[in-house]
Design goal:
Blueprint (H helix, E strand, L loop, with lengths): L1 E5 L2 E5 L5 E5 L6 H15 L4 H4 L19 E9 L6 E10 L3 E9 L2 E7 L7 E7 L6 E7 L4 H8 L5 H18 L1 E4 L3 H4 L17 H11 L1 H14 L6 E6 L5 E6 L5 E3 L5 H14 L20 E5 L8 H16 L3 E7 L11 E5 L3
Helix pairs in contact: 1-4, 3-4, 7-8, 8-9
């Protein structure tokens, strides 16, 4: 991931492994790096620019000076590896005076496959050119200035020639790599109350964890047993099972079965225990249980879910941090989950095989 000019970052490049932790003091840009990744993912999924950046001026570098037309903005990008080799995407966003994508470039092997530029500020479109290698080397046409052009290429490129198919393959590789993102920030204050029975898809704040437990316990006994073992390692007292029970008003609450006929409702657990429990559940489930939009172009067995966890170590004690990291490494090693998180301290993660620690300076 590249943050050429985004918030506190200038010229920052992060290589992302199976488990990547950004560590640093407050103000070093940890959360903004995750925000940039999530933004690229949403744009790749077809979201409009205004939905992704409701407050775009927040991400303009503080000392960025406006040009003669009072324009300021930011630049982000990424490189996605895969069957087509490394494919690079760079996006330039104008935040002021109007929010719009003013430049985008998709390239592979040193060749530009798609390039857009704002030619006429009075029009709500950019001029795009994509590689075709037919009777003309490129095809030109307008694209909306509030959508990611790379995600629109399957609607514009016919795929009749080898060059066109290469453009489509590179665009698909980039979009698929970005789309399966689950931004997770468990909120203990919202996890304690009973919840209505719903879809069984875990929200980003894990508010409806009780409803999801109802589903996971009945659908996959083996995975649920692994989850119970993780909870047993990170929560105080004996844990024989983690259950969901229906109350008289039809809502669902989660409880820890202590194995002696006694059950502890989640509202009695500490904030660290609740965050640990939620993060463990996220790592042990997958797109079918989490509220994400998995890429339909890729078989479920081959999809990789990227979990964004801001403040991964927040409110966790040393034993919970260590156990959660072991679980993350084990699940990410299987290739179906990638974890990109932030932490204030690296001492508990440094040197762990399979974990990349990136230190940021304020």
């Amino acid at each position: 991931m590249r943050l050429s000019a985004f918030g506190p970052h200038r010229g920052a490049v992060f290589g992302l492994g199976a488990v990547t932790l950004l560590v640093g003091a407050s103000g070093s840009g940890k959360s903004s790096a995750l925000r940039a990744y999530e933004a690229l993912a949403r744009l790749a999924g077809g979201s409009e620019l205004g939905e992704v950046f409701p407050d775009p001026a927040l991400w303009v570098p503080e000392r960025a000076r406006p040009d003669a037309q009072r324009r300021r903005g930011f630049r982000i990008g990424c490189t996605a590896d895969g069957p087509e080799g490394p494919v690079r995407l760079d996006v330039a966003v104008q935040a002021e005076p109007e929010l719009r994508i003013v430049g985008e470039r998709l390239s592979s092997g040193g060749q530009v496959l798609l390039e857009t530029a704002l030619r006429d500020p009075s029009r709500r479109s950019v001029q795009a050119a994509w590689h075709t290698a037919g009777s003309a080397p490129v095809t030109r046409g307008p694209l909306p200035d509030d959508l990611l052009g790379t995600a629109l290429l399957p609607l514009r490129v016919a795929g009749k020639t080898d060059a066109q198919r290469r453009v489509l393959a590179a665009a698909e590789q980039t979009v698929v790599a970005l789309r399966s993102v689950y931004a997770c920030d468990p909120r203990p204050d919202r996890m304690r109350a009973p919840v209505p029975a719903g879809s069984g898809h875990l929200l980003g704040g894990c508010d409806n964890l009780a409803d999801v437990l109802w589903r996971t316990r009945s659908e996959c006994a083996r995975r649920h047993a692994q989850f119970v073992a993780a909870v047993r390692a990170g929560c105080a007292g004996p844990v024989a099972d983690v259950c969901a029970e229906t109350l008289d008003d039809g809502t669902v609450r989660a409880v820890l079965d202590r194995g002696d006929g006694f059950r502890t409702a989640l509202e009695r657990l500490g904030g660290g225990e609740l965050r640990y429990l939620a993060l463990a559940l996220v790592l042990l489930t997958g797109p079918g249980v989490l509220e994400v939009d998995p890429a339909g172009e890729v078989p479920a067995a081959m999809q990789t879910l990227t979990v964004l966890a801001d403040g991964l170590d927040r409110r966790l004690d040393p034993s919970q941090r260590a156990e959660l990291l072991r679980l993350a490494v084990r699940m990410c090693d299987r290739g179906h989950v990638r974890l990109f998180g932030t932490a204030t301290d690296a001492s508990w993660a440094a040197g762990t095989p399979g974990v990349t620690v990136v230190h940021l300076n304020p």
